[in-house]
Amino acid sequence: MNLKSLLAGLTFAVVALPMGPSFAQDTSSSAPPAEAPAATDAAAANPQQNWLKICDPVENGKRACIMRQVVVTANQQFLGSFLLRDDPGQESRLLAVAAVPLGVLLPFGVTWQIDSGKPIRVPYMLCDPQSCATQLVVNEAYVNSLKKGGKLTLTAKNRKNEDLKITINLAGFTGVYDGEAALTFDEFNKNASGEAALEKILADRAEAARQKLQGDGTTPDSSSSSSAPAQ
Question: Which residue spans traverse the membrane (predicted)?
Answer without folding.
Answer: none
